[in-house]
Design goal:
alpha+beta; Hypothetical Oxidoreductase Yiak, Chain: A, domain 1; Ribosomal Protein S8, Chain: A, domain 1; 2 domains; seven-stranded mixed sheet; 44% helix; 18% strand; globular; binds NADPH dihydro-nicotinamide-adenine-dinucleotide phosphate; binds pyrrole-2-carboxylate
């Protein structure tokens, strides 16, 4: 398939142009362009420039508030809340981040609860931003009910990602970020776009039968990773990034969508941990023990999660990124329309 080569600046400018010409305020468009450019740069194709398509659909269908004004609330010594005002989550996260970091630095552990946000992005940009301040981080969010519980065939859970970051002195942080479904839904959508079969184990069709057809998978139910273990983690994400922070589950997000097919709308929970307070006098020994563990992983030829992304990041900075021509044309059509 033919690809178009774009510089990172071109990806960013294209994202801003697509979003602002479709009625989104410039500060939201810029915050979204930053994460979309980062996704494309790190070769996370399911959460890169492709996401502009559903962003524009969500705007045009009138579900999303393109002029949202998020409001930050200092709830307690450990808790920050940002109400996203039914806009996308990125600006709300950027607004809540400084207070989250300040609180974790002061008392050792802090939580940022984002409410009433539309959420489409990968979570690693957020946990990486926290790790860059010397804190460890954990982030979770529900989505729409697309995933069956282990032992069932009907969707209940969202694809419910969990991301974690651990800061490392002078090195990229240790980061993982994955859906609690076998794969992100965005990846199945990319298979559908290019008419490619999906592996068995990702989804079942409407009748609960295992399928390799991406269309049948999107109409049926996705499966959790690791059977009952992924299923329990998906339920945990629903609970602590939903009802615990006074927000919707994936079932309720799906209901709120009312068949439009917009980006899921719900909450997000982000936790920050300060090793200097939690580890106290043992913090520097703790950091050394963590490094020994990373060495033991890499030393036997295994790789750390995110290493593929960090390698891609270095490549993209000089070579730019490749975007399938069909996808590029579909995105350009969103500007022309
Ligand atoms: P994957 O199944 O591809 O897993 C991704 C994670 O596993 C990455 O940290 C990846 O690192 C790591 N990894 C993959 N292979 C290896 C390996 N061999 N050794 C060590 N680590 C490895 O991703 P998903 O499809 O589950 O999720 C993709 C993205 O989708 C995530 O960023 C997630 O946040 C996003 N998402 C967002 C949702 C939302 O509602 N906002 C919902 C669901 C998903 P690396 O990147 O370096 O390969
Ligand atoms: O790929 O599963 C996914 C997803 C859901 C919301 C944003 N991305």
């Amino acid at each position: 398939m033919e690809n178009i080569n774009l510089s990172l600046a071109q990806v960013h400018d294209l994202a801003v142009r697509v979003l602002t010409t479709n009625g989104m305020d410039a500060d939201h468009a810029a915050a979204i362009a930053r994460v979309i450019t980062a996704g494309q740069r790190d070769e996370c194709h399911s959460h890169g420039i492709y996401r502009l398509i559903v962003c524009v659909k969500s705007l045009r269908e009138g579900k999303l508030n393109g002029h949202a004004r998020p409001v930050t609330q200092d709830v307690s010594a450990a808790v920050v809340r940002v109400n996203a005002d039914f806009g996308y989550s990125q600006l709300a996260f950027e607004m809540g981040l400084p207070l989250l970091v300040e609180k974790a630095r002061q008392i050792g552990i802090a939580a940022l609860a984002i409410n009433d946000c539309f959420h489409f992005s990968a979570l690693w940009p957020e946990v990486e931003a926290i790790a860059s301040t010397g804190l460890a981080a954990l982030a979770m969010t529900p989505s729409h009910s697309w995933v069956a519980p282990a032992g069932g065939t009907k969707p209940v859970f969202g694809t419910n990602p969990i991301a974690f970051a651990w800061p490392r002195e002078g090195l990229e942080p240790f980061v993982f970020d994955f859906a609690t479904s076998a794969i992100a839904r965005g990846d199945i959508e990319l298979h559908r776009r290019t008419d490619q079969a999906i592996p068995l184990g990702w989804a079942v069709d409407n009748f609960g039968r295992p399928t390799t057809d991406p269309v049948a998978a999107l109409q049926g139910a996705m499966l959790t990773f690791g059977g009952h273990k992924g299923s329990a983690l998906a339920a945990m994400v629903e609970l602590i990034a939903g009802p615990l922070i006074g927000d919707l589950t994936s079932l309720e997000s799906q209901k709120f969508d009312a068949g439009v097919g917009a980006t899921p709308c719900h909450g997000e929970l982000i936790l920050a941990f300060n090793p200097a307070i939690l580890g106290g006098a043992r913090a520097s020994t703790g950091a050394k023990h963590a490094e020994s563990m990373f060495d033991a992983i890499v030393g036997q030829g295994a790789r750390l999660p995110s290493q593929r992304r960090f390698d891609a990041r270095v490549r993209s900075a000089t070579r730019g990124v490749e975007v399938p021509a069909q996808l590029y044309n579909d995105i350009m059509a969103l500007v022309k329309d």
